[in-house]
Amino acid sequence: MYLTREEEAILEGEQGPTLQKAMEILSALGDIYGADGLVPIKSAQIAGVSYKTIGDAGFEWISDLKGTVVVPSMLNPAGMDLTRWQEMGIDEEFASKQIQIIEAYRRLGVRCGCTCTPYHIDKTLAKFGDHLAWSESSAVSYANSVIGARTNREGGPSALSAALIGKTPNYGYHLDENRVPTVTVKIDSKLEGADYGALGHLVGSMVGSGVPLFKLASRPANTELKALGAAMAASGAVALYHVQDVTPEAGLYQETTDTIIIERAQIDEVFGKGCQDEPDLVALGCPHYSADELEQVAKLLEGKNLDREVWICTSRNIRDANPDLVNKIESTGAKVIVDTCMVVSPATDRFGCVLTDSGKALNYIPGLCGVGSRLATINDCLRGGDNN
Ligand code: F3S
Known about the structure:
Helix content: 25-40%
Shape: globular
Bound molecules: FE3-S4 cluster
Strand content: 5-15%
Mean pLDDT: 97
Low-confidence stretches: none
Largest sheet: 5 strands, parallel
C-alpha cells in the first residue's frame, strides 16, 4: 500500500511507539487487502471493550498505548452498567477490571458512551459518503446501508489505530465496486417489528458476506432496518444491504440475476425456534434502543407490575436524556440498563432462557452466554404483569 512521506515517518517511529504500532496495523491490513492507500475518516467506533470478551491480554494492550485520538471516537458496550453494576449481579473483580479498561480508553481521548448505536446520539459522526472506521457489526451495517457512509467491519485494534491516525486503508466497502448488490431478496407479505429480526436471521445465513438488495412489501422504519442489519451481521457476515425505495444507494442498482424469495411461513418459523422453557429474562435493546423505542416500551408497560426480570438496553446518553420515560419503565420493575448489553455482559450467564425481540441476540446469546434464547414480538416480550 502506498504511504505518503508523513505516513512513512510515522511507520518508522518518528512520532512515538503508539502511532508506530497503529500505522503498522493499518499498513499490514492495507497490504493484505490490496488497498491503494489510506483514506481520511470522519469517526471511529471501537469494539473490544467488555472485559468478558477482551480479557487481561486486551486490557494490557490498551493500557500500554499513549496518545490521543484525532477524530471523534466512540466506545462499544462494556461488560456492565458502569454505575449500577451491583444491581446486575456483577462481581467486584470484574467491575474493577472493567472500570480500568474504560479509563484506559478515556486517557486516549475516546468518548466512553459505550454504545453500538452511536448514530442515535450524535448524527455528525456519520453522514452520507463519509469514510469511517467502525467495528461493531450492527453499527457497521447501519452506517453503510441506512446512512450511506463507508466502513469495513473493523476489529477493535484496527478501529483504534484508525482513530489515532485519522485514516483507514482504502479497500472493501470504501470502494464503489464492492457496494453493488450480489443477490435480490423478495418478500411479498408485510412485515413489522421483530419480523425484521427474523428476516435478517434467515437472510444472513443464506447470503453470508454478500450484499442483498431487498424488495419489500412494506416500508421499514429506521429502527426496523437497524434490527434487520444487526440480525444479518450475526447469522451471516452482511455489512451492507440495500432496500429498494428506502435506503440511500438502492436507486443506483438494478435487480440481480440471483434471487431469493422468502415466504411468511419461514419468518414465522424463526419465532418458534430456540429454548421452549418459561423465559426467566426478557432482554430488549439489541442493538441499543433509541428514545422512540423506549417510548414504545413505556406505553406497553403502562399499568404493569412485572414479576420477572426485564432489561431494556440503551446508551447512557439516551437514558439520561429521557428521565420521565425511564422512571415510567422502571416503576413497573423493568430495568433500563446502559453501557452494556445482554450479549457482552456476564450478568446474562445466570439465566436459563432469554426472550428477546432481536434477531441478533437470538443468534448470539446461546454461543456467547451459554443460555437459551427465543425470538418474540415486543408485545409478547412484555406481556404479563398486569395489575388488574
Ligand atoms: Fe449492541 Fe450488544 Fe446487540 S453490542 S448489537 S446490544 S449484542
